[in-house]
Amino acid sequence: MSFASLKSQRQSKASRSYVTSADNSQQSHPTTIPKVIHSNDPDTSTPSNQGTVYHGIPENVEIRVSATSGRGLWAKNSIKAGSVIISLRPHSFALASRYLDSYCSSCAAASNSGLLRCTGCRTVWYCNTTCQTNDWSLHRLECPALRKWAKSAPSKNLSVPSDAVRCLGRILWQKKKEGFDSSWSKEIDALQSHRHSLHPRVVENNTHLAHSLVRYLGLSSPGDLSEFGISSAGDLADLISKFVTNTFALTSPSLTPVGVSVSPLVALFNHSCDPRAVIVFPRSSRHPVEEPQMQVIALRDISPNEEILTSYIDTTLPRSLRQATLKETYDFTCQCELCHDGNKIDPRESIWCPKSCGGMCPAPSDESEAYQCVKCRAVVATPGFIIDALRIGQEALEKATFIQDADHDKALQLTTNIIPILVSAGLTPSCHPLLALTGLHKSLLVPSLSADVAQELLDETIRTAAKHYTGLSAILRDGHPVRAVALAELGKLLAVDEPHPATSSPPNVAFPPSGPPRLKAAYETLVRARHELTIGFGRANDGGELGRNIRETLVSLEKELGVWTQGIHNTLQDLLDSSRK
Question: Could you tell me the pTM of the whole model?
Fold first, then answer.
């Protein structure tokens, strides 16, 4: 599993990753030096000169240091939902090994008509000679390192270093090239490190990463890193800790994690499990040389003097898992409202009322306690059964996630067998791990759809996609990129041509519809998806690459619906004419 995959599990497939642009004039932000404010009260501030390290911050945002959240980014003026707050190219990025032959290593674009392979290392690929030339200043150093690594690799599947190792290598080569006193290097150096308070498992992983980096650079020991400005083991440990703590998943326009990226400025945003902004790579630029563009998008309206918060982790997880991940990786305990509002039932940890009144109960976690429906006060009679189902579901989720690439059929069998158990236990669609298993089940079903797909399989995939969106919509606000992409996927599945349209709906099966009603449902779903995409991926970006694709699909469906409507009109007119004869 790549570093990108591991990172994406922490960063809501959104991870700390989803955003888009707000108007075309903001495609490239002018370079400015931000002001840093120190403040114990968010409404009062005093200037400081500590912000001169960072460049590229827009005028309507400033760095402040508060007593509660430390250093962060705050809005100076009102920011509307769907607006681009920051748009920039990451300091460094690297593709996950599995995507090296299908994405460009210079602009991170997916291959549409084939890529050009580097004839030296035969590892990285480019869109064209322009992208290859743009990347040459670093790849000329990377190329021999990749060749040497592959030559000494014990097996073919270890012949390419991880995305983390390659990204760290690029950072060190770039620092040396730019100069250690350059603003580029100072921004990297200003990243926060938690090496003195890391979890032992994280320390072990970081140590392994450090040794791999030394080997990749062609050095014999960490002591040889002085040419890169690293003079001690502590310096190396700090570099690795800064990297692990501050990387973002590099994602495709549909949020698939395809690598890792580093942006010191974007790393300044503090965390909330109910974020006000998201980070995405919408592919909005008209100039490939500017890609990949990392954009921070307002997820809701942000008021002046309000801190702009993003999420570092998957916010569909229940509180206990969110808190554990944040403590282990980022060394803090989240104090956001979502984590401390104990008066409400969290949909992530909820079951349906045992009396089917339509209300919900907290998901049991202790057999000795009583759990009641908040609506009718009915008591959950079998908490032990539900606790066991939750445990089995979590184990199945972890196993299916781990084996999904190596054994697709086994993973699909697991999700197929476990989901009904969780449903029978009364878990709501948004409850963990049912929501995560439903999303995984959908992703395992979609590759099974082929040109000669069976009607039953297509319908099952559509129903699964609908359940996944239902669960997400209960916990993620309108326009969240994860929710928007899920709705777009549902719409596209509904638009797939039916192999054998039903003349009438089978008993007890109301969804999905068949024939023309399905086409209409696809159109309406995609209209809603496009609305959400323009928020999560930026209004000025037209919802990013995915939003533009959905717009084209809508145009096609409008034509198809028009033909269908005209056909009905013609048939009725023919019947009317024949009745008059």
Answer: 0.87
